[in-house]
Here is the input.
Amino acid sequence: MNKLISEFPKTTSNVDPQNILTCAECDGTNIVFDPEMGERFCQSCGIVLAEKLESTENDANTQFEKDQSGLHSGMPSSLTQADKGLSTVIPYSVIDGNGTALNAEQRGNMQRIIRWNKISNTNRSYHRNLKNAFSLLLRVKDKLSLSDPITEKAAYYYRKTLDLNVIKGRSIKGFVVACVYTACREAGALRSMEEISKAIDTDKVFAGKCYRLLLRRLRIKLPEIDARSHLSRISNNAGVSEKSLRKAADMMAVIKENPVSYGKDPNALAVAVLYGACLAQGEKVSQVNLSQAANMSIVTLRKRLLDIRKVFPEIPNGPNAIKP
Here is the structure.
């Protein structure tokens, strides 16, 4: 047994491991290659004749994959770029493709070609509009940490409004906010109109008008906002206990079926239900803390709390006024 696991025989040290046809120990010809371990061994006596070898089959597959990947080399196309990443870019260089230095006349011609190539890419107001809009879109993406599918969908909607000539005479910022908000609504991302408007410093009222015009002209039907999706976010920001959060979820299920919730802001409804659940559980949470966690005023919280009390009149007036 010790003989089988000994070092490689000296007779195979100068032989190419890929060309070993006979075993140097038992003179057997049944040589087997293990592609997983990269070893060539004798099946008769079990001695390993060579190790750390690469499979030629794997090399062929790897080369094939490299050849196939070369067909699609380069940056992928994207709707968030004005030219979709497909335009030709002529770099500044003093040598040609073969490495030969350009003379003075050729350098002058190249500079002229580069200049006209740049002009041709931005000679239309359509392209300039897209460049301005998508620079704002990328700024919103960075500030709000939006995903790539959301920004791609927002860029798609903006291109549609530009093709329909809806944006003519209106603010670019307003329609960027409208497109981002629409894409977030479709993806289920919790981003408010005010939040997106702050990211690029524009008026949320005008952005809301652009949003309604966008839905009407593109005939987009968005899913209804579920107020329960705001509960966990507000509770985490305000530090509300899990017990109160579960109580708020049960209360929200009842309020959603009641007409008192029709037409109300889901975020305002969620913070009012959460505050009512905290009162019902005897948890001391201030209205200021909850309103700041939900990014809204205390007045709105109190108004929605009055609506909640119509459905749940047993909610106490304060954490110290719990009914026995």
Observations:
- Residues 228-311 form a domain with the Cyclin A; domain 1 fold (CATH 1.10.472.10).
- The chain has four domains: 10-50, 88-121, 130-218, 228-311.
- The chain has twelve helices and three strands.
- The beta strands are 31-34, 39-42, 48-50.
